[in-house]
Write a sequence for this structure.
């Protein structure tokens, strides 16, 4: 009996109809953010759909800016050129000033982050925080030499998997590095990528529970009915499959609770957690050896000198016991 083949299940929580509606909105608006915002979709998922379809949104933006520059060189006014390429007048002014955007910053021709009031922001993308850029981190982070090798292998046309094999890294690590730290022109510069990665290091950062009111209310409601943080984490994925902002790890919940316990809300935290603890329990990872005895061992050579005087009955009895054991051992050995 023959069976009709079925399509494999989609890995994305979005349906095919939502994906098709996004492509239609993207063709009309020519902006990933505007199309995702109009349909209530996550921009990162929409960007991934375009990459899988072979569409490079950055290339379209570069073409629009090149067309804008061409019109400006021919004498077209800024307003008419902006209307022709379909950009806001504020964006057209930035393009005339040589500005560009990267990682949420407004950068000038010298890669300095600028505000709209024409005052340089404290963070300089080229010269600031030299100590943090040169700081040696854990081996799990990409080093500058590895980023230089990524640039060299990318220039030769190597695939992401071949680059990952050469670096002994995961392919997802290389793919994420190229996506997050690449330049606006679609190229990869190792030194600029290293500075960008160093700019993301400062800690501490605000927890999602401090500025996500809907997420905080959900966690609070489930804790009141004695759900564990692990249950809350999985319930968020099931009840909000398309909202990536409604995500929180169990560790984030634990840290928020124990921080409140140190702040004076001890009884409230005890009521929220099923274990009733207000302090974290030390976990045995097997890396640290523990002593068999709670008190340190005292060697017989370190005994105090008053034991030799036998002035205390306890000391005298212990000495007699030791002599008796020694004598019994000698007798048994001779017998």
């Amino acid at each position: 009996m023959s069976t009709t083949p079925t399509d494999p299940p989609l890995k994305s929580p979005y349906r095919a109809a939502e994906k098709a509606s996004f492509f239609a909105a993207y063709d009309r608006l020519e902006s990933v953010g505007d199309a995702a915002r109009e349909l209530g979709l996550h921009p990162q998922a929409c960007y991934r759909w375009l990459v899988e379809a072979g569409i490079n949104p950055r290339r379209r933006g570069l073409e629009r800016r090149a067309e804008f520059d061409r019109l400006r060189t021919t004498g077209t006014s800024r307003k008419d050129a902006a209307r022709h390429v379909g950009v806001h007048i504020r964006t057209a002014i930035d393009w005339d000033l040589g500005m560009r955007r990267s990682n949420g910053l407004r950068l000038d021709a010298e890669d300095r982050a600028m505000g709209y009031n024409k005052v340089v922001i404290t963070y300089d993308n080229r010269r600031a925080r030299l100590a943090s850029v040169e700081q040696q981190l854990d081996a799990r982070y990409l080093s500058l030499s590895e980023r230089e090798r990524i640039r060299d292998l990318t220039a030769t046309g190597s695939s992401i998997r071949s680059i990952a094999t050469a670096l002994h890294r995961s392919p997802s690590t290389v793919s994420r590095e190229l996506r997050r730290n690449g330049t606006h022109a679609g190229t990869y510069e190792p030194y600029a990528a290293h500075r960008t990665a160093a700019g993301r290091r400062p800690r501490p950062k605000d927890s999602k529970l401090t500025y996500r009111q809907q997420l905080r209310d959900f966690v609070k409601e489930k804790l009141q009915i004695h759900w564990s943080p692990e249950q809350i984490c999985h319930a968020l994925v099931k009840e909000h499959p398309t909202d990536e902002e409604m995500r929180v790890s169990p560790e984030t919940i634990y840290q928020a609770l124990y921080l409140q316990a140190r702040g004076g809300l001890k009884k409230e935290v005890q009521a929220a957690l099923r274990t009733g603890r207000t302090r974290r329990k030390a976990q045995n990872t097997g890396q640290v050896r523990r002593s068999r005895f709670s008190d340190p061992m005292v060697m017989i050579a370190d005994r105090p000198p008053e034991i030799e005087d036998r002035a205390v009955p306890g000391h005298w009895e212990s000495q007699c016991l030791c002599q008796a054991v020694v004598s019994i051992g000698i007798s048994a050995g001779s017998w």
Observations:
- The chain has a mean pLDDT of 75.
- Residues 313-334 form the longest helix (22 residues).
- The longest strand covers residues 120-124.
